[in-house]
Amino acid sequence: MLKVTLSEKGQISIPVSLRKRYDLKKGDKLIIEEADGAIVLRPFPQHPLLSLRGKCKSKGHEKLTALLLKERALEREREEL
Question: Element (H or E) spanning 21, and its range?
Answer without folding.
Answer: helix 16-21
